Amino acid sequence: MLYLVGLGLSDETDITVKGLEIVKKASRVYLEAYTSILLVDQSILESYYGRSIIVADRETVEFDSNDPSESNELLRYAATEDVALLVVGDPFGATTHADLVLRARHLGIPVSTVPNASIMSGIGACGLQLYNFGQTVSMVFFTDNWRPASFYDRVRENRQIGLHTLLLLDIKVKEQTIENMMRGNKVFEPPRYMTVGQCARQMLEIEEEKGEGVYGPDSLAIGAARVGGRNEKFVAGTLKELCDSDDALGPPLHSMVLLGRRAHELERDFARGFAVDKETWDTLWARDYGKQDAPAAPQTDDNAEEKEDAKVQASL
Amino acid sequence: MLYLVGLGLSDETDITVKGLEIVKKASRVYLEAYTSILLVDQSILESYYGRSIIVADRETVEFDSNDPSESNELLRYAATEDVALLVVGDPFGATTHADLVLRARHLGIPVSTVPNASIMSGIGACGLQLYNFGQTVSMVFFTDNWRPASFYDRVRENRQIGLHTLLLLDIKVKEQTIENMMRGNKVFEPPRYMTVGQCARQMLEIEEEKGEGVYGPDSLAIGAARVGGRNEKFVAGTLKELCDSDDALGPPLHSMVLLGRRAHELERDFARGFAVDKETWDTLWARDYGKQDAPAAPQTDDNAEEKEDAKVQASL
């Protein structure tokens, strides 16, 4: 049996009781540590779980081209033993785990998954309502000659219908220099985690280049650090203000939300508590936000319906 | 201190270790049981947690108009004791809990929240990728003279840009008849939970009425039951097929996803495993899905960027 166990967002105590029972019983326990990271070290997990943990790299979890059977180390063991793969966040947050489940299914290996908090839902702690979010986008580190901007079109789509956009920020873990890679040196660069400041600057850079007014320096956003952790931190402000928010936010992981105009006054009031400058927040909100609907789809709801909606949306 | 503790989606073992420690130490433990439900009874929670639990109704958690201080029973205790409010899913899944946190903040009561899986992220278990979802909508029970259709506009917005839509289905818990309410009889109707079949029928009814072709009987969707539970179940098919899927799905809670065309072949293959009729699934997919972009925003990504995107999107 292959168990995919979500670890949640922050530390060793974010595992569920169900997940912990599986970790204690499994014959082998792997930790997938290249798509995201917890905020604590492997040794803390090991002593808390009372188990040694094998750190799984891409070759262990993903398609192994040396093995024609679509299998890999993980699946070979799971065919005959109870193997647990620990995944930061929720097991289905990452494409790569869905792919693993699918391959296990093809090989006839039973799979059981244990859900947990994901940044996709945990971001609700910033005070913005989850049902007001559009698609999630990712922001990668720009280099001198590579500044991918596909996020811009997706942000536009969300903003055209007034929705918030969650931006997931790049991490570089176990990266090799091209030189080390070519020489086969297993020497890795120090990990890098994109900050909210970097993200905000890259966004403004692309807006300046494209000039389509999808957002601007005055657009409201929320920077988030260590969501779900005991010292999680939010900073709300304009994109321009967030360019300089890294000191306030502190250590990784960071993520960011760009606000959509179809926002509710509860969201305004909640996030206002995190505002760099409350006056700016109030002024810009009054000017640009709290518009209940997009021009393309006139609001026809009556109050009763909105109230009923709110009740069902609460059923999460 | 007010603790908001997410319980996750299914049973008593879905609480996190961090959450369980809080429950064991708090002086009072409330369970919010009107916006959603776990799949197990209160008594099972009580014996597992080793605590008696007070079931919190709307008056306990929400604004109490008899109390001019914006307080209520929960906040009055939390001002001087450690009070835990247990919330099905994630504490920030429901608007009402964000409102509670905001009022606690105004009253100077410290708040700590413990995240957990929410249906918003847990739905990833159906094989559709979370970053391909647009806004979440809610579907309420239609009555003879009340058939709210605001969901239709929101589904259109999602589908116009090729995104999936998660539909949260109505629950009616502790509802009174108008007669009992007027007489002040505290007699409650049996709880009702909307099924995927009912949702699919209501959707088709509204499409027939509006005739705008936002979706149709051939649109692909996935019905989900007891997501995150040991016996979770998914059924994939056309809206027409899902009208008759309730027997296959079994007991509550149900939810549903209407697919967007901007879907990936991994999503096709994963969900195909749940298909009512695999041939229909393949045919309709080939005809209408797997289109990588919306007409309004031509795809300009190169492969390298898509690959990089996939990696970051994996960082959940």
TrEMBL record, chains A, B:
Classification via HAMAP family: Diphthine_synth
SUPFAM superfamilies referenced in this protein's UniProt entry, alphabetically: Tetrapyrrole methylase
Leading EC class: transferase
Keyword list, A-Z: Methyltransferase, S-adenosyl-L-methionine, Transferase
Name of the featured protein: diphthine methyl ester synthase
Record domain Tetrapyrrole methylase: where: 1-242
Free-text function comment from the UniProt entry: S-adenosyl-L-methionine-dependent methyltransferase that catalyzes four methylations of the modified target histidine residue in translation elongation factor 2 (EF-2), to form an intermediate called diphthine methyl ester. The four successive methylation reactions represent the second step of diphthamide biosynthesis.
Reactions that this protein is recorded to catalyse: 2-[(3S)-amino-3-carboxypropyl]-L-histidyl-[translation elongation factor 2] + 4 S-adenosyl-L-methionine = diphthine methyl ester-[translation elongation factor 2] + 4 S-adenosyl-L-homocysteine + 3 H(+)
Native organism taxonomy: Eukaryota, Fungi, Dikarya, Ascomycota, Pezizomycotina
Annotated organism of origin: Apiospora hydei
Top-level taxonomic group: Eukaryota
Listed PANTHER family: DIPHTHINE METHYL ESTER SYNTHASE, DIPHTHINE SYNTHASE
Pathway info: Protein modification; peptidyl-diphthamide biosynthesis
